[in-house]
UniProtKB/TrEMBL annotation:
InterPro entries: AA/rel_permease1 (IPR002293), AminoAcid_Transporter (IPR050598). It holds the Pfam family AA_permease_2. GO terms for cellular component: membrane. It is a multi-pass membrane protein. The keyword Membrane applies. This is Uncharacterized protein. It is found in: Membrane. PANTHER family: AMINO ACID TRANSPORTER, SOBREMESA, ISOFORM B. Keywords: Membrane, Transmembrane, Transmembrane helix. It comes from marine sediment metagenome. The chain crosses the membrane at residues 41-65, 71-94, 101-122. GO terms for molecular function: L-amino acid transmembrane transporter activity.
């Protein structure tokens, strides 16, 4: 498998197919190593990583929102992050159907934004040399992306 994310997805699908239970990681680790403490710790690590991921995304969103609104207060960063977590939690509490529709709506918004950028760029096709670096620009930044 050439793509690491594809490998992770296939590994996770295999794990869930061989152990079709809730908390597949716990069951998989338990059956592989026969150490219940290790499975227990892995379950808690997965819970904490989910919490940290949600907090990171919420703080990133709040940072962008405070910059967009021009509000320099740091306390609002935490408040906006908490509001986002509450909203997402409510959507999940309502059910899978609400969560699915929310995902569909935001995917359509994102895709339409990308299509809009492509449409705006169509008149510039063939008129720009993409291999010329900007004068005084950062050469390293070009290759770091």
């Amino acid at each position: 498998v050439n793509n690491p994310s594809k490998f992770a997805k296939e590994k996770n699908n295999t794990k869930q197919a061989t152990h079709p239970k809730s908390a597949a990681e716990f069951v998989y680790t338990e059956e592989a190593f026969k150490v219940r403490l290790l499975s227990f710790l892995l379950g808690w690590i997965i819970i904490f990583s989910g919490i940290l991921s949600a907090a990171t995304v919420a703080l990133g969103f709040a940072g962008y929102l405070t910059n967009l609104l021009g509000i320099p207060l740091e306390i609002l960063l935490v408040i906006f992050a908490a509001i986002l977590i509450v909203i997402v939690s409510l959507i999940n509490f309502v059910g899978i159907r609400a969560s699915t529709w929310t995902n569909i709506i935001f995917t359509l918004i994102e895709a339409s934004g990308l299509i809009f950028i492509i449409i705006i760029g169509i008149p510039y096709l063939g008129t720009v040399n993409y291999f010329v670096l900007p004068i005084g620009g950062s050469f390293g930044a070009f290759f770091s992306a």
